[in-house]
Design goal:
Number of strands: 15
Oligomer: single chain
CATH topology of the largest domain: Aspartate Aminotransferase, domain 2
CATH architecture of the largest domain: 3-Layer(aba) Sandwich
Strand content: 5-15%
Order of helices and strands: HHEHHEHEHEHEHEEEHHHHHEEEEHEEEH
């Protein structure tokens, strides 16, 4: 093998140090730890595709509002467990303006990142009906959601949706939901990591089967409006971000501010619960909760027990951002278009050097350019591929931990690769290709 970017003995020592026996089972944060150590040991900057950190500065409107709130002494005051009321009002307006759905202020709940929304949703829903102990993951998906279910003791099952697009989706959902074992199902849209986007037909199918078996749908909108094939960035103007909420009344929407507003560090997200679910009574909740009213149990027991509410000053930041967005003073889509531009360049570099896209179609169209894409190298299994990537100064995570059926590929996140590093990525991929092909001889 020709010289690699990272000396092989250094990589082997780091993997031994962290007791890594299987790279395909390595979590996102573990992979970050490995890459951090390799950078420290070698002084070589990695092409860091392993973590979905925003690669843009936070929206200044939010920063200024948060600083002002802190100056006014808000840090000394416990936040309202239901959320800062002006923020709740702006969330209500936001989902009307960009999803075209109507909810009440009480249904809009600030959370400590959208991950808190999923965690407390699982925590509450798993106790709504004694006979229903499982969550269905429509995969591939965000690996930490599975970790949350495991930590809570929730049962779960999953399937890779890629081969069940369109009308095929109904049959696979029937197979699982007809068992009566599931309290909910969860998916992301656009999808992390494949970047597929459910069509209106598919959302109708999800609604139809979920309604038939009374299953709550949790829709993860972490990458809100980031299907750049459409312009979802104008308030109150079609087209609107596709959502299950148009077709079903038993839903929870998880909306993140981490990517679309680059506000990841302050852990501030939004949970929107349908009015019908919020006000629903589940007698079985009384076994573990004081109230059988879903909204009350969710806010005053699940959220309260986890964090006593959402950090105060970030709520002021998100309020200011949403107000500007709702009033058309700030176009969030324009600010994140750079991710699509990066994806287009990076995909070309991979494809030109013999790599292949794993999830390459969105039904019958090429996959869009966005925050993530998926890639593999012919002839390498997942462990070999990740090992070679690390040897060549490139970080990524295995598709296996996302629930994908394809274990020889990786998720590539574009956000942290600066434009001035694209040529270096191309150079490393060429070296990697040559080294792999020489190994085959």
């Amino acid at each position: 093998m020709s010289d690699t970017i990272i000396p092989q003995y250094v990589l082997d020592e780091v993997l031994k140090k962290f007791n890594v026996s299987s790279l395909v089972d390595t979590s996102i944060r573990q992979m970050c730890q490995i890459v951090d150590n390799l950078e420290k040991e070698t002084g070589i900057q990695f092409v860091r595709m392993e973590l979905g950190n925003p690669g843009l500065p936070p929206v200044q409107i939010g920063v200024d509002a948060e600083i002002e709130a802190l100056k006014q002494g808000i840090a000394a005051v416990y936040p309202d467990i239901q959320g800062y009321k002006p923020l709740k009002t702006e969330i209500k307006k936001f989902v009307k303006n960009f999803l075209d759905i109507d909810v009440n202020i009480e249904n809009c709940i600030p959370t400590v990142g959208s991950m808190m929304g999923s965690f407390t949703s699982f925590m509450t829903l798993m106790h709504t009906r004694k006979e229903r102990k499982k969550i269905l993951f429509v995969d591939p998906g965000f690996p930490v959601h599975k970790l949350q279910a495991n930590v809570l003791g929730s049962g779960s099952e999953h399937f890779d949706v890629y081969n069940y697009r369109g009308k095929k989706l109904e049959g696979i959902l029937e197979k699982y939901l007809s068992t009566g074992e599931f309290y909910g199902l969860i998916y992301s849209n656009p999808n992390n990591p494949s970047w597929i986007v459910f069509t209106d037909e598919e959302l109708r199918i999800i609604a139809k089967v979920s309604k038939k078996y009374d299953v709550v749908v949790i829709e993860d909108l972490a990458y809100f409006g980031m299907d750049f094939r459409q312009d979802y960035g104008k308030p109150g103007v079609p087209p609107y971000q596709p959502t299950i909420a148009k077709y079903y009344d038993q839903y929870i929407l998880l909306i993140s501010s981490s990517k679309v507003f680059s506000y990841a560090g302050q852990r501030i997200g939004m949970m929107v619960v349908s009015p019908e679910l919020f006000n629903r009574h589940f007698p079985d909740l009384k076994t573990n909760f004081n109230s059988d009213h879903f909204g009350t149990a969710l806010i005053f027991e699940s959220i309260y027990s986890v964090s006593s509410g959402t950090s105060h000053s970030p709520q002021y930041a998100l309020y200011a951002i949403l107000k500007a967005v709702n009033e058309g003073e700030y176009n969030f889509r324009d600010e994140v278009l750079i991710y699509g531009e990066k994806a287009k360049i990076m995909k070309k570099h991979f494809l030109d050097n013999g790599f292949q896209l794993v999830y390459d179609k969105d039904v019958d169209k090429p996959i869009a350019d966005g925050f993530y894409f998926t890639v593999k190298y012919p002839g390498l299994d997942g462990n070999e591929f990740l090992y070679q990537l690390l040897l060549h100064g490139i970080g990524a995570i295995s598709l296996k931990i996302t629930g994908s059926d394809i274990h020889d590929g990786v998720r590539a996140c574009v956000s942290l690769i600066p434009m001035d590093m694209m040529d270096e990525l191309e150079r490393r991929l060429k070296i990697m290709k040559n080294n792999i092909e020489n190994l085959k001889k």
